[in-house]
Amino acid sequence: MTADPGNARAFLLKGKAQTALGNKEEGLRLVSVGLEIEPGDTEGLRLKGEYAAELGQIEEAETALSRLRTMCAAPCAAANELAQLIDKARDTEKD
Asked: In degrees, to the nearest 5, what angle opens at C-alpha 79 toward C-alphas 37 and 36?
């Protein structure tokens, strides 16, 4: 990201790529950097919640969901999908 370190979208895309390659922690880190640049990015919030939930970081996922709900007009499919994913991750932790 040396070409344009202020490009939030580039961090989100690189985070998605890292996650697709199996580097979930790095994917979450990159998405979080993108959100530091553009805190209201709804795709970034959804990705952060998704990746955090997949890593068992339920509180971080719920924080992203809360922020997403404030940014996304109801009804918000992305927020509803993220809420379901968090519930599933929470159920998996109990097993």
From this structure: 10
